[in-house]
UniProtKB/TrEMBL annotation:
Gene3D superfamilies: 1.20.120.1560. It comes from the Bacteria. This is Glutamine synthetase. It comes from Parabacteroides johnsonii.
Length: 144
């Protein structure tokens, strides 16, 4: 009877361990998909939209001097240049954090143990994703 209890206990620990490992793997895969889609959306959709918006802003700012009075044109140019700088900064930050996210993701994927992979992913990939989200949201707010 005692050996049955110990045997059952070791089996339940193994089942619990397998169950926990499966949860880590599922959570990790979900986070990896999210990171991939976030980077893909930012690089292939948002940045081209921001570039087009930036181009139209440049044209509007350059034409301001011919349409408005000198004081108004200067104010418009100053405000436009400020927005253009913000857009450029967000684009640079998005590209940097997307690259760092991919690099950290590759390092995490080299780990065999799913728990260690999840920990490394949480500590090294998620901070870049959060920063990436901030810049994506900020850029969306400007160009939307």
């Amino acid at each position: 009877m005692v050996s049955e209890c110990f045997g059952a206990r070791s089996i339940s620990k193994q089942v619990c361990s397998d169950s926990q490992e499966t949860k880590w793997e599922l959570a990790l895969k979900q986070q990896q998909k999210e990171a991939h889609s976030l980077c893909h959306h930012a690089i292939h959709k948002l940045i081209p939209m921001a570039g087009a918006y930036q181009q139209s802003m440049l044209e509007a700012v350059s034409q301001a001097s011919s349409i408005y009075a000198p004081d108004e044109a200067e104010a418009i140019c100053h405000a436009g240049n400020k927005v253009l700088d913000e857009i450029s900064n967000h684009i640079s930050a998005i590209l940097y954090n997307a690259r760092k996210t991919r690099e950290a993701n590759r390092k995490a994927n080299k780990m065999e143990d799913s728990h260690m992979k999840a920990v490394i992913y949480h500590n090294s990939v998620l901070p870049y994703i959060e920063t990436l989200r901030f810049h994506i949201d900020s850029l969306n707010a400007i160009i939307a």
